[in-house]
Specification:
CATH class of the largest domain: Alpha Beta
Number of helices: 2
Shape: globular
Distance between the termini: 30 Å
Strand order of the largest sheet: 1-4-3-2
Helix content: 10-25%
Largest sheet: 4 strands, mixed
CATH superfamily of the largest domain: 2,3-Dihydroxybiphenyl 1,2-Dioxygenase, domain 1
CATH architecture of the largest domain: Roll
Amino acid sequence: MHIAKCLHTAILVSDLAKSEWFYGTVLALPKVDRVLKFPGAWYQVGEYQIHLIADPSIRIELHNREKWGRNAHIAFAVADLEAAKTQLLANDCPIQTSASGRAALFTQDPDGNTIELSQG
């Protein structure tokens, strides 16, 4: 087997409207048209996509509350980590800096899914 590239990540969300605000407005990801019949929203990141799938019963729990990077998460490279941090704080999003000391921080979407942002 040879895997050529990663196509998308599906993220379960309990409140689609709140999640669309986070991924579309706070993270400023462009929304992609979709024709599927179940509630959700797709967002583009280069050649990669984030698929939000609505599930009102979903409950996300951090296994490691001290170091968010040691939980299941998705990582994005950003051009300006300080600008990203400012954007997150302006929107009352929680943040945690990387414990490793590298130029990275972690935040959470409205359901508590962990997102890593790294200077890149």
